[in-house]
Fold each of these.
Amino acid sequence: MDISAFSALLFFPFVVPICIYVAFSDMRDMRIPNQMVVALFFVYAVVGLVALPFDVYAWRYLHLIVVLAAGIALNAGGVMGAGDAKFAAAAAPLIHLGDLRFLMVLFAANLLAAFVAHRIGKHTRLSSIAPHWKSWTNPKFPMGLALGGTLAIYLGLGVVFGK
């Protein structure tokens, strides 16, 4: 992995709770709260100053702009929700560009696993633990489960296998 273990280690403890809440909130309400997107952005804005060299830190804001533009287009096309697009954009600066292919494979695997686990979970007793969750009855998939999981796993792997 091209992400430095140092930067992954600094981001990890701040980002993982946000990712967990995003997954939970998206399953419960089928929405990703804007406060979590802003919190993720602020984690990068503050911790990134310590975790990354300044030139790298500044250039990674371009990742946010590119992913936000793509997310807006995908949202307009009905492919993804607005919260998913905003979360992906806020997460983009945390990703090392050299890890993009790895991240896509990780996201695909995590999306498949999250989809299967969610669909199985809604037909088991797990759904009786949280019967009010909107994702059990909504035909759409709570993508925050996969997006948050992917970012948390990526940073965790970065801590262990990063440069």
Note: The chain has one domain: 5-161.
Amino acid sequence: MQWYQALLVIKTFRGDGHISIGELADQLMIRDHSAAELVSRLDQAKLVKRKTDPSDRRRSLVIMTSSGGRCLDRLALLHLRELRKIKGAFTSLFQSGGEEF
């Protein structure tokens, strides 16, 4: 689940396709070292790659690979199918104003 969330953030962050480890940590509400470990695992799986920030060589930028994009697309499609299956439950929940909770 954390990989999926990370890939979503990487893909959608500012639209330029680059996010720093610190920015990823902020978006996922995790610590910088946890984000760095997560990026290392995603990198080993070839879903992302690291790039040195040309404006600050101390910073690493995270870029989604084409393989990561395809993986994210497949996961999004699966989630969309599941949401369509339970559409009626969502519709009735929102129409009742969430009073069941």
Note: The mean pLDDT is 89.
Amino acid sequence: MNWRHAAAALALLAAGCASAAPSLAPLADWEADSRLAARAGRPLVLFFTLPGCRFCEDVRQRYMLPLVRQGQLVREVVIGSAQPVAGLADANAQDGVARKFGVRFAPVVLLVDGQARKLADPIMGGDTAGLYGGYLDNAFEQAQRTLGRQVD
């Protein structure tokens, strides 16, 4: 096999791997997503982004996609997007969801329950100090404690 054939084979392999990679689903149906999270006893993870945001892409690849692979319910909300969102009072588009939660910049990760209540402090900004994983762990612990109190 010459180098052209090898390069073509590698390109096909890379394309196949890229298409199999998990992606983040957009927030589109609040009621369905909040029911899924409630049934699993987990928070709904809202990942607020902006198009072309390199910090958003870093957080998506390094933290949000692994959360999806672990079974967490992560939904992407694009600030400024008119993409419809059903079932959430006072927010019928993704930009309205950002306004409802007071999110004006990206990236922001917010853990909420089915009633749109914040379960933990938001994680704002990118992973500039290498501590993002710890921030996520703390937010999930805080969310689980809050969810546990809500059940009791």
Note: Confidence is low (pLDDT under 50) at residues 1-21.
